[in-house]
Specification:
11-stranded antiparallel beta sheet; 252 residues; single chain
Length: 252
């Protein structure tokens, strides 16, 4: 059993861990594809336990409360990635990111616009011109602040870079806010070097009730597939009071 702390730097919402980053922590010790499942919000700046149980990595919090699980995967869920786009196309898509004009999670480790270079990843996925609604992308260059001893982005940082684009794929497709990452199956074929320009792309797959699935991929500037993931997002149930207020405002 190992004790770890997810620092506030790695938040998604202000008071819980970034889903992709935490999934990467749960998955990083497996060779090949892995699946990580988040069972509860991930507390920040407190001791958490990581243990191997029946071939799975299990994360628990206070009183042994289950927070997440990671396991090896056969990769069957992993989607075939779309045709990659150029860095210039990705930068143009990033300029259309909805978070530039609307408020989502401004301090999120992955997509928070209030995070500085080297503090957050600043992946701002926006609609790709000429592609179906919901196909989003941005250019991402890993900062040296995140490099390991080999000068590469750690696996959990790569998983974090793949996180929020899948969410924004569905926001672009449906115009709806509010979902939490539940499960992520990922495969990292090559970790990018610090300073290496990359392209992150995401696209919606299917919707079933309150579950939305998305595909995400990381490409090199030359179009090499570096990583891919399948995500399951859980749509947050709207609060009745908030719904009533929104309807009242719309009719005013």
């Amino acid at each position: 059993m190992t004790q770890i702390v997810i620092g506030r730097r790695f938040c998604g919402p202000p008071n819980s861990g970034n889903g992709g980053y935490v999934c990467g922590v749960l998955a990083k010790d497996f060779d090949g594809p892995a699946t990580a499942m988040l069972r509860a919000p991930v507390p920040l700046d407190v001791g958490l336990e990581l243990a191997v149980q029946d071939g799975q990595v299990v994360m628990t919090g206070e009183g042994g409360a289950l927070i997440g699980q990671g396991r090896a995967s056969d990769g069957a869920e992993l989607p075939a990635p779309p045709r990659p786009i150029s860095l210039e196309e990705a930068r143009a898509a990033g300029a259309r990111h909805l978070g530039h004009t609307q408020r989502f999670h401004p301090i999120c480790f992955t997509c928070g616009p209030e995070r500085d270079e080297g503090d957050g990843l600043r992946v701002f996925a926006g609609q790709v011109e000429g592609r179906e609604a919901g196909v989003v992308a941005d250019a991402w260059t890993p900062h040296e602040a995140f490099a390991d001893a080999d000068g590469l982005a750690p696996l959990e940082v790569v998983w974090a870079a793949l996180d929020c684009p899948g969410y924004f794929a569905w926001v672009e497709k449906e115009g709806r806010h509010g979902a939490l990452l539940g499960t992520m199956t990922g495969e990292v074929l090559r970790r990018p070097k610090a300073g290496e320009p990359c392209v992150v792309m995401a696209w919606p797959l299917a919707r079933e009730g309150r579950k939305e699935t998305a595909g995400v991929a990381l490409f090199s500037a030359q179009g090499e597939l570096m990583a891919r993931a399948h995500q399951v997002w859980i749509v947050m149930a709207p609060r009745p009071a908030a719904d009533a207020a929104a309807k009242e405002q719309a009719s005013a």
